[in-house]
Write a structure and sequence with these properties.
heterodimer, A: 123 residues, Immunoglobulin-like, B: mainly beta, Porin, 4 helices
């Protein structure tokens, strides 16, 4: 193997490392982490406020059964694992001011339809 | 800025070394070109590839941080490749807001063994409940709950029941205001709206939630519900009233609901609930019911009022819940007189009933894979709490109970329960019966 080949191989490895470092998971700002607990038949907190431009990371955890977390009309819909089985994460960029409704999207009991809340994106 | 420099450095290195290493574009031979020099061609090719890579990087960044933005106008469901990407495990894609969706069937089951003191044990498939839901759109949804009690239904008096406990349409306007109509659950107490077996301790529901608050309390109704402020929820309904002829001295309001069976609504009842759920683990609620009940007796003006408050709190391995409920029956004296004249025996209906309970619990083995909980519940319930003037209370219906036991959850939706109930009353003639209860319940 020639010296030139070694140099090119090493350069390629360095380039790959740099690409990994600036991969899409490395956001230009740290996400704002908000923990949400789901339990028959409430989300806590049920009203979330963030500033425009914030990258929001919702960490969703259940205290009982599977719940869903659906932001109405946005395309976000996560299933929250049952108690003790981890959490679901939703990451989004709050670019457009407004109020967004979220709700449980997985039938969880007699009061399932009460599980609603809002995300308010302010200026 | 540093990120952008890093991106450009990375791209440059890839471009400088990537081609030769991969062997796709070997160095051009040193020949003359009539159009451009080999060096110029190489530079143009590199510039083109830089532009392509920058475009690709922007696409990847955009996909990873999808902006939260208002939805586009309603449209037909997009093909799969145009759906938003998954952003965190486990996510799924979403249909358009105007698409009807029927959810999967859910439900719960309650299978009991009851062994009253000095009596034979009984196996009872107490409840088999199926829930259905269908969304006509994001704003219009149907929910139904169909229950079979005690496994078998016949025309005989002592048999099971098929009950339509919920069948309503929700018109969702905004989080603060939503409309509901159909067969609804009365929003009273802890258990009535939250009665899935894994969500409460004890094989049988609390006595207070049976005799003072007649769970499962459902009837035809219409109303509003929503969330207000940070952590407040409310429900307010007009519902079919209770039937005074079904109130008894022993079981209180347990059988007094009309259950949507040609419910008389000459006078509707008002009911509502306010809950605070703004602090994780804490749930505080209060509810009321008020309505005329004497529609079967034109000359008797009887009303039932109920006031209740409850709380639940959970912190780590510990949890506690409690409830207090008091019933007021206006016109109880006239009701007793009228029923005595028609049936020959006074039903001894009280003018006030009262019940409360407290229930601490602990999950003593947090290090094992499955949840195990131990609980003790003290209940005091008196369906003869205050009597009409001239009517003596029946002391055997002034009762207290200690219920202690455990719950084992092989899955958060499956629970094996065992408890022992010790019931005492104030009568010297009638002794209440203790019981051992074992249950298996699950939600799916």
């Amino acid at each position: 193997m020639t010296r030139t080949t070694w140099l090119r191989g090493g350069s390629l490895a360095c380039a790959a490392l740099l690409v990994v470092l600036v991969s899409p998971s490395s956001f230009s700002q740290d996400p704002t982490v908000i923990r949400v607990t789901a339990e028959r038949f409430t989300f806590t907190p049920s009203h979330i406020k963030v500033k425009r431009g914030t990258i929001v990371e919702l960490r969703l955890r259940s205290e009982d059964t599977n719940h869903g977390f659906r932001i109405v009309g946005s395309g976000f819909n996560a299933i929250i694992p049952k108690r003790g089985r981890g959490e679901a994460t939703l990451i989004f960029r709050a670019d457009t001011p407004g109020r967004y409704t979220f709700e449980c999207s997985k039938m969880c009991g007699a009061g399932h339809t009460f599980m609603r809340g809002t995300i308010t994106v302010g200026e | 800025m540093r990120r952008r420099i890093a991106v450009l450095v990375a791209i440059s290195i890839v471009l400088l070394v990537g081609g030769p290493v991969s062997g796709q574009t070997p160095d051009p031979p040193a020949t003359q070109s009539p159009v451009a020099s080999p060096g110029q061609t190489r530079i143009e090719e590199l510039e083109r590839r830089v532009r392509e890579l920058e475009t690709r990087l922007r696409e990847l960044e955009a996909a990873a941080t999808k902006p939260l933005a208002p939805p586009p106008a309603p449209r037909e469901p997009a093909p799969a490749q145009q759906m938003p990407p998954s952003l965190g495990p486990p996510t799924s894609v979403e249909e358009s807001s105007t698409v009807s969706r029927t959810g999967p069937i859910s439900g719960y089951m309650d299978f009991h063994l009851n062994k009253p003191e000095h009596e034979d044990a009984q196996l009872d498939f107490h409840r088999f409940v199926l829930l259905f839901n269908h969304s006509f759109s994001d704003r219009l949804r149907f929910v139904g709950e169909l229950e079979l009690e005690h496994a078998f239904v016949s025309g005989l008096e002592a048999s099971g029941e098929v009950e339509l406990e919920q069948a309503y349409l929700d018109f969702k306007v905004k989080p603060e205001l939503n409309f509901r109509a159909g067969m609804v659950l009365a929003p009273v107490g802890i258990i009535n709206e939250r009665h899935e077996p894994p969500s409460f301790h004890g094989v049988e529901r609390p006595f207070v939630d049976t005799f003072i608050i007649p769970t499962t309390w459902f009837d035809a109704g219409v109303g509003v519900h929503g969330t207000v402020g940070a952590g407040w929820q409310y429900r307010a309904y007009l519902m079919a009233p209770l039937d005074a002829t079904r109130i008894t001295a022993e079981e209180g309001l347990h059988e007094a609901t009309q259950k949507g069976f040609a419910s008389n609504v000459r006078n509707v009842a008002h009911t509502g609930r306010l809950e605070y759920v703004g602090v994780p683990g804490l749930n505080l609620g209060t509810s009321f019911w008020r309505g005329k009940t004497g529609f079967n007796f034109r000359r008797v003006d009887s009303r039932v009022g109920l006031f209740e408050f409850d709380g639940r709190y959970r912190a780590g391995r510990f949890a506690a819940r409690g409830e207090f409920a008091q019933v007021f029956i206006d016109g109880a004296a006239d009701l007793n007189d009228f029923l005595q004249r028609t049936a020959g025996v006074s039903p001894n209906i009280a003018r006030q009933m009262r019940g409360f309970y407290v229930e601490p619990s602990i999950r003593p083995l947090p290090w094992i894979r499955h949840d195990v909980a131990a609980f003790v519940r003290y209940e005091n319930f008196d369906t003869q709490f205050k009597m009409p003037e001239g009517v003596l209370p029946l002391k055997q219906f002034d009762r207290a109970a200690w219920v202690f036991g455990g719950s084992y959850f092989p899955d958060p939706d499956v629970v094996f329960k065992i408890d022992y109930s010790i019931i005492r009353n104030r009568s010297s003639l009638f002794r209440s019966v203790d019981s051992l209860n074992i249950g298996l319940g699950w939600w799916f």
